[in-house]
Amino acid sequence: MNTLMTDILIIGAGPAGMVAAMTAVQYNPDKKVTVIKSYEKSQVPCGIPYVFGKTLGEVEKNAMVCGGGPIADMIEKITDTVQSVNIETKTAVASNHTIKFDKLIFATGSIPFVHQSFQSALNLENVFTINKEYHKVEQLKDHLLDKKKIIIIGTGFIGVELACELASNDKDVTIVGGGHILAGSFDEDMAVKAEEIMVNKGIKLALGQHANHIIEKDRLAAGIELCDGTIIAADVVLLATGYEPNTLLASRAGLKLARYNGIWVDEFMRTKNKDIFAVGDCSGRRDFITRDPSKVMLASTSAAEARVAGSSLYSIKHLKGFNGTIAIFSTMIGDRAFASAGVTEQRAKNEKIDYVSGFFEGINRHPGTIPDASKQSVKLIAMRESGRIIGGQVVGSKEAGEIINIIGLAIESELTLYSIISLQVATQPLLTSAPTTYPIIMAAQMALRNGKTS
Amino acid sequence: MNTLMTDILIIGAGPAGMVAAMTAVQYNPDKKVTVIKSYEKSQVPCGIPYVFGKTLGEVEKNAMVCGGGPIADMIEKITDTVQSVNIETKTAVASNHTIKFDKLIFATGSIPFVHQSFQSALNLENVFTINKEYHKVEQLKDHLLDKKKIIIIGTGFIGVELACELASNDKDVTIVGGGHILAGSFDEDMAVKAEEIMVNKGIKLALGQHANHIIEKDRLAAGIELCDGTIIAADVVLLATGYEPNTLLASRAGLKLARYNGIWVDEFMRTKNKDIFAVGDCSGRRDFITRDPSKVMLASTSAAEARVAGSSLYSIKHLKGFNGTIAIFSTMIGDRAFASAGVTEQRAKNEKIDYVSGFFEGINRHPGTIPDASKQSVKLIAMRESGRIIGGQVVGSKEAGEIINIIGLAIESELTLYSIISLQVATQPLLTSAPTTYPIIMAAQMALRNGKTS
Predict the structure, then answer these.
(1) Chain B residues with CB inside 8 Å of A61's CB?
(2) Any idea where the domains of chain A sit in the sequence?
(3) CATH hierarchy code of domain B2-38+80-111+244-311
(4) What is the pLDDT of residue A187?
């Protein structure tokens, strides 16, 4: 058993852990920063769906490359699994190491969430969760090689991305869920555009009702039964039903958990103990708009939290802490990018928010005769009285992935529709919509008009 | 001579005029809105370079389509040339119409600026400015058909875009200018990336000294002579040396002009007379950062001004007027997008601004093994003490055209580097850089670090 001393210990080397470590080094160049992780190799979490289709095609191509650069080189890296943490004595005990620390950051991530009705089926060798560990991804990819009929339960981003990738590899894919796909991030009008593309790719949609249970036959899953009794046969069943915070270590150490079991943290990602931090999927998140606990898990949110924690270890440097997740994300379905931030109209209704929305569909180049021109749709959602922007959805070509970041900045900066309508934007024939019809501005104008007449 | 009555008259139907008209209709649905323009057909101004190469290839494909939609249909359109405006009697006299108005918006645009030393050469039939009128673009395109050696004087966006398009059509192109290309928008470190691409496309760069004069022979331009005596032969000489406000009509009407001869306007685009507005290239612009008069001419800025004017005709609706141009624009050079907003480092130096800058070069997908991954560079410029962001430059794939709009929003919203470092962004393998290395955030971190150590 090696005994090590470090100033700052980070448990976990996913995006949250690595960004926390890099930031800690930058703000505290005189301190020793140590990262401990269970496995030598890890996967880029958001890249996992793409190893199953033509995009990456190989597990190796999705390896997370952490090293390189003078800052990364200043981080001590240990491969070992932490078994327990003693917060009083500031000691972490791993299988082969005992580590004394001054500051500790939990970045232990998340593990697949499996609904109770499917848990017994997890023993069957053709039922899988989408586990982020490197060797688990390899195992799943090997298993799928000679399989044809695949059922994916779950219509979140991972389920949808997996469905598209597997379909591109000639698999017969059925995706199953209780409502429209990506329902947490897109209203029905946007979701149906995505569903249409999926159907055109040959993916079968079994939407509108939940999977009731997994049918077992000869110690294998033979398919699933939906709530209405419909049976869908399958060679493999994939459970893409979300993730839950990996907080066993933290809760055993006596740390308080928040609702949904994330580690409770303040605005600066500190637990009740100001030397102990938690960042990423294992932390207890709040929603930016409602301030309620949030289940959203995103690597980019994790990175933002990690930057706040990494700069706040010894003292609070910036008053802006982490004000809750704006749930900003994007994906590709076919050749279309779908992106979302803040609340959807549906969620605004559920939350009883008095909102207005504006929608505009234009073209992403100008004039529309530019060879790669295609449709571009933007929806904005704002508070009816103040005009403050609280949500947005974008469907378009790849640049939609950055257009949502303009909307995200507007939400985080508490801007209103009034600032947006006279916004100065760069427009260029080969790169953007026309200056006269820039979609975020048009959607803002439309929202203001809708606010007046409704 | 027809005599017409209208509530709101707009002179000019470029981007500024059309957006002003559309906004005027939206805010004043009970008022009659009339647009008067000299020519039936017009060109998308920023699209003009692309009719000369393979991108559009035809003048017709760059026609500006104004009509369509219930709002556009509510605008009365007249084709005629206004000869004089009487502000006291609120009357505009055109060749075939006399129009009485209540509110007037000048949107008369800009005309090519030609340095005195080239003015006499304008009579030669193979010397052209880049005139935005439809038939002039046609004339130039026809003239270039059987010509090979083309000299472009001027290294702004139009000159550079024209050079790339003409080179793609197998022309022998030389571009001439006193410094690096696009020097107003990019620092040398970014400009050289663009120059390298142009050289690889076979474009000859004659940079570092100005063209002295155009050499005349047999009533044609035979080439140019540079300041050091070098002679470059040519079949055609194109003057892409900028534009100046088209304000003859306004000045004859007695309106005050600002420095650089734009029509003087307040923050709401009103002239000294609160019933008379000016928007677009004919208006006197100020710079967002320095508040000095600005020569920047951009259709997107024009559209922003037009939206302010169109909503302020009868009363000021929003306190946010037009706070000056942030000079935000983008272009493509080869397969790389170049985009810029606010001040460059060079300009910050010239203006004696105490600034810091941060630069980051990463990859626009993650992992870097994603098939269409390519380099992405971001530079941010901020006030040293407060960290307030005052400029940015981006080089990358097409999404750089929207990344600059994130930076533009940060500049306009007076955000600081401190807000940016914990910004929540959407990241996705197929669409953006990794969450751990999002380039705007990395550049902001770099700027903060540079601020400390310098």
Answers:
(1) 367, 369
(2) 2-38+80-111+244-311, 116-241, 336-453
(3) 3.50.50.60
(4) 98
**% chain B with pLDDT above 70:** 99
* Residue B361, beta-bridge partner list: B377
pLDDT at B454: 43
For the cut 70, the answer to whether the pLDDT of residue A261 exceeds it is yes
A69 touches chain B (CB under 8 A): no
Task: Confirm whether B2-38+80-111+244-311 and B335-453 share one CATH topology.
Answer: no
Of B301, B400, B431, nearest to A332 by CB-CB distance is B431
Instruction: With both helix axes pointing from N to C terminus, report the angle between B157-168 and B188-200 in degrees, rounded to the nearest 10.
Output: 20
Residue pair A112/A131 in contact (Cβ under 8 Å)? The answer is yes
Query: Which ipTM did the prediction report?
Result: 0.95
Q: What is the CA radius of gyration of chain A?
A: 23
Q: What is the CATH number of domain B335-453?
A: 3.30.390.30
Q: Which amino acid is at A44?
A: V
Evaluate whether A223 touches A232 at the Cβ level (below 8 Å).
Answer: yes
Q: Please give the pLDDT value at position B383.
A: 97
Per-residue pLDDT reduced to its tens digit, A380-430: 999 999 999 999 999 999 999 999 999 999 999 999 999 999 899 999 999
CA–CA–CA angle A429, A430, A432 (5° rounding): 70
Question: Is A332–B449 a contact, with Cβ atoms under 8 angstroms apart?
Answer: no
CATH number of B116-241: 3.50.50.60
pLDDT of residue B72: 86
Say how far apart CA A371 and CA A369 lie, in whole Å.
6
Among residues A46, A52, A297, the alpha carbon closest in space to that of A158 is found at A46
Query: Do A287 and A351 form a contact (C-beta atoms < 8 A)?
Result: no
- Tens of pLDDT, residue by residue over B360-414, are 999 999 999 999 999 999 999 999 999 999 999 999 999 999 999 999 999 999 9
Secondary structure (H, E, C), B375-398: EEEEEEEEECCCCEEEEEEEEECC
Q: Does the domain spanning A336-453 belong to CATH 3.30.390.30?
A: yes
CA A12 to chain centroid, in Å, comes to: 17
| Chain A from 267 to 296: CB within 8 A of any B CB | none
